[in-house]
Amino acid sequence: MRRAGVVTHGRPEQIGAGIARLQTVARESGVDLVVSPEEAAKHAIAPSDGDDEVDIVVVLGGDGTMLRALARQLGDGIPVVGVNFGRVGFLSAMDRDGLESGLTRIFAGDYDVVELPTIEVVAAGARHVAVNDVVATSGSLGRMVELEWAVGGEPLGRVPCDGVICSTPSGSTAYNLSNGGPVLMWGIDAMALTFVAPHSLHARPLVVPRGRDVLVWNRTGSVPVAVLVDGHRVAEVSPSERVDIRLAQERSLLATLPEATFVSRYRQSFSA
Length: 272
Prior knowledge:
The protein is of the alpha+beta class. Helix content is 19%, strand content 39%. A hairpin with a 2-residue loop joins β6 and β7 (126-130).
């Protein structure tokens, strides 16, 4: 490995001496760090000269920072590895105390790459790709919406609710999990569909495989439906308009230490 990109938490103070520690490990491993002007300004260090081609991207932050980095690298074949400086850090390969030992191994090539599906959504005439999840929710705080839905062209009725979550396996342990949705292990090429606060006894979570599009119509008389991609509002759907959701062709590439498996992270993050 010759060059590694750097992405850090939006609040530089969150990672403390993390950048200096990363610089030391990279220097000792013979790896050049590629630091963008944005990252350099955050940490008062010099940006990199020359091209920005890298072999891997190192993230110092939490799951939000990981999502930002994974989304940025979609389609370029560059894996992303995380050191957790956040709270849960489910997507990170190591915690902050293991930075030196973990990144030394990463820079020596001792890592696996997990390919994870992403989700595309077409709403209001624009296409967006989500690493974690797509959420169609009430655009008016405190107002319920009525959503009509279909999977693979087959109608499944209407559900009064606060919204619906379509999540990837990597996103199934986030908002989807907190709403009682199913956890999808890495390696499953599918998405989980879970309604938020459904006013129904029949709205159950569903796992949808690749090739089956999910169609969601806003059937609420006067309330718009907001569409969120990885937590960011990207569109608003008026009554009678539709949102198209499916597994995308792009895949996010998550680099991890061999022992930092899905099961070990799941046990560490969510077991009592």
